[in-house]
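Re: the 196-residue chain
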Amino acid sequence: MARRAEMVEETRARLMRAARRAFAEQGYAAASMDELTAEAGLTRGALYHHFGDKRGLLQAVVHQIDTEMAARARLAARDAPDAWAALLAEGAAYIEMALEPEVQRIVLLDGPAVLGDPSRWPSQDGCLEATMEAVRDLIARGVLKPVDAEAAARLLNGAALNAALWVAASEDAASVLPRALEAFRCLASGLLAARS
């Protein structure tokens, strides 16, 4: 039974690797399922069995990349001098990833076009929970104003996500990025409690 589970996992991984490459290089619409499955050494039947269809495969790839992005953002926050700086660093790291071609095309352009509102993707739930926990902690320590933690977390995550979407969709992403980061930091700073 364990061998069967390993085979299933290996098949899924091969399909996802091939899809990730095809979606990044060609985009979702142009990616051929026949070429993708041939590259993986599998059949279309394997794709349909494991993911339902091309959209299901995109959903799995987006989830994988989005989860990696969240982990990388947390890593970027690890060296921050305090919890507030860590929260800002996490949001900024997420926005900066919009410059990466794979993230840009798969997660920020094709993902929303095919899968709908990114704030409703299951992979975003973990990000929201982590942000709410950080906001609650900062409120309890008097760093942030005593606002509704869920509302603040949703707005912070939404600001970072929309900034990343803007960067990804812009014709000159490198010049948009610093503007997006500055605006994100200014908006987030509005939550800070007044210092006496």
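The chain has nine helices and no strands.
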